[in-house]
Amino acid sequence: MTTADDAARNSGVGATSDDAARPSRSFLSRQERFRSVPSTNDIIRSWMADGTGEVCLAVADEQTAGRGRSGRSWVAPAGAALLMSLGFEPTYVTPERLWRVAAIVALAMADAGEEVAGLPIGMLKLKWPNDIVVAAPDAPSGVHKVAGVLGETDGAGTPAVRAVVGIGINADWPREQFPPELAEAMTSLREASRGRPIDAGELLDAFLLRLEPRLLGLREGRFDVAGWHDRQITTGRTVRIDMPDGTAPVFKAVGVDGASGALLVEDAAGGERGLLVGEVTQVRLVTGGGDAETEPGGVTL
Fold it and tell me: Same domain for 249 and 146?
C-alpha cells in the first residue's frame, strides 16, 4: 500500500521547509538565465563541449532562432513561456532507452504544470512523441498544445554520450495574445486554469523539484512506465502518421512500448507494430470527420 507520505516522496512534494522544497545543491552543475538567446539547446551543447557535466540548465525569457522537431519553430512573446534546455550525460541508460531522458523531463513538467496552475492531476496529457496537451472538445483535433519537448543525443553507446533536452511550455500567456493562425491549436497554463496567473520562477522550481527524483530513479534503473502510459492521449485514438517518404498512413494507436518508447499502432491485419520516433516525421490526431489536426509547431528550443 502506498501512503500519503510515500506518494509525496515519490512525486517530490510534501516538503516541510524551504530547503526541502528545492532541488539539492548537487543536482545542477550549472544554471544560467538569459533575457534573449538564439537557442538554449545550442547553449547547453556548447557548455557540455567545454566539459560541463550533468545536469546543466539554460533558461531564456525569449529565443530568436530556436527549433522544434523536423525543423518546425514557434517563437513565444518574451515572458509568455518558460523556455529552457537541460544537458545530461546518460551513461546509465542503454542506447535503445535514451528516449527516457526526454520522457522524464516531460513527465516532470506535466506534474509541475498541474501543481502550479492548480489543475486536476492527469489533466495535462502527452501526445506521442513530444507534446504536452490538454483535451479540448471544441478544438478541431480535440486537443490544445501547451508544451513541446525536443531531445537531441550524441555519442549513443559510448562513454561520451550526451543528451540535450529542450522544453518550452506556454505559461502566463493570455488567449487574446495568441497568434491568430495558432489560436485553435494551442493554449497555456493560464488559460487551462481559467485565468490563474502563472509565475515562471515558481513553475521552474516545481519542475526541478519533480525532475530530480525521476533522474535519480533513471540512474538506478527505474522509470515510471505506468505514469508515462497513463498520460498518453494518443492511446485509443485514430492517428495520421506523416512519414519521411511523404506518405501519411492512418492507424489506430493502441498504446506505447515502455521498453523502446515506440508508438504501438494496429496494422491492417489486426496486429500491432511499433513506430519509433526516428521513423516518423509527425503524428496528427484524426477527428471524427477524418480531418487531421493542424500542427501548431514546436516550441523553440
Answer: no
- Print the domain residue range for 26: 4-230
Our count of domains for the chain comes to 2
Residues 158 and 22 occupy one common structural domain = yes
The answer to whether position 291 is within a domain reads no
pLDDT in tens, the chain (301 residues): 333 333 333 333 333 345 555 656 578 999 999 999 999 999 999 999 999 999 999 999 988 765 554 445 556 677 789 999 999 999 999 999 999 999 999 999 999 999 999 999 999 999 999 899 999 888 878 899 999 999 999 999 999 999 999 999 999 999 888 888 888 889 999 999 999 999 999 999 999 999 999 999 999 999 999 999 999 999 999 999 999 999 999 999 999 999 999 999 998 788 899 999 989 999 999 876 555 555 444 333 3
From the centroid of its chain, how far is CA 159? 26
Q: Are 147 and 165 in contact (CB under 8 A)?
A: no
**125 and 261 part of one domain:** no
The beta-carbon contacts of 259-266 under 8 Å, at least 24 apart in sequence, are 259/96, 259/97, 260/96, 260/97, 260/99, 261/97, 261/99, 261/100, 261/103, 261/129, 263/128, 263/129, 263/234, 263/239, 265/239, 265/241
* Residues 37, 139 share a domain: yes
